Give the backbone structure.
Amino acid sequence: MAGEADSKAGAMEAFYRELESKSMGALWRRRYPEGGSGESAAAYPPMAWRWRDIEPFAYRALEMVKPGRGEGERRAVTLHNPYTGGSGATHTLTAALQCVNPGDISPSHRHVAAAIRFGIRGEGTVTIVNGEPVPIRAGDFLITPSLSWHGHISKGTEPMMWMDSLDAPLVGMLRVGMRQEPYPDEIEPATKAIADSHSRFGVGHLRPVWHKAFSPVSPLAYFPWEQSEQALNEMAKVGSSLFDDIAFEYTNPLTGGHVMPTMGCWIQMIRPGTHTKAHRHSSSQVYHVFRGRGATIVDGVRLQWEQGDFFALAPYCWHEFVNESSEEAVLFSTTDTAVLEPLNLYFEDAYEENGGHQKVTGVYEDKLPALEARAGGRPGS
């Protein structure tokens, strides 16, 4: 019997080698992970970038780099997640801190990847998107859809910084990107009034009667901070999410859907004394801490954050938010939910154990070695 079993095992191994020699395989050899409802299914650990680390590099870049044609058209410090195997903050989204000096002109160009900007500090910069000059100030949010011409002009008196986030990893994964295309002149001329789209579509429940076209790309390019802040404060009076406290998604005013087909964007307030319940979903998310301080418990690991920090969460990680301070915390985030929902690939689960709260097993900095081990080590290590 033993000889027969050995003979059969040998024949199977030979069969597998023959399959591999022809670039084939055997599906029945694949093993799928098993786990209870409270266990993590995250593809990679959380990743945090601290403002105290980012800010010095930003000011050095302001001194050393001049945007323009040639060496580099944008002065941006990019945030790389070593667990994703690429240069993104998640496997589908990038994050960066773009910095401009007074008098800077960042030449107009376009590319397949869609982008967003969220103002962090400063003012006096205008980005021209398809002929529309759009101001950027702290808390302002604006979109740059795929293949839109866009360039930046700074007329401020101090440096300005904002968050960039693009769907570039997704575009690269799908192999639909192309080389960045420069505008024929240094900067695209402004052919519309400043914040033209906000004048037309800035009140979400009203639409110009002559505008008949509907598109998955929002015609509203500019969402000023004053409106976002007012919405957060008004919603705080009447209701909240069990998982995200006071949270809004920026939307296409004509469809009520995401602002762009591949990216969704949120503004979120965690009120003092709040501890949300945990949940998980199939989308990844990149957060910037616009105001305040708090923590996110991710698969049992407490990740503290404060104003200026960035952090990224993988699909299917359990997470909940905590604000133990006396001040509100405001988070801006980008997510790939928009591309998952039309494919029926967006899933969400509530954490059912321990009243909806995870058991905290440690803090982020102390748990980094264990997180890396869970992820199989940092790529390249």
About this structure: The CA atoms of residues 188 and 252 lie 25 Å apart. The longest strand covers residues 115-121.
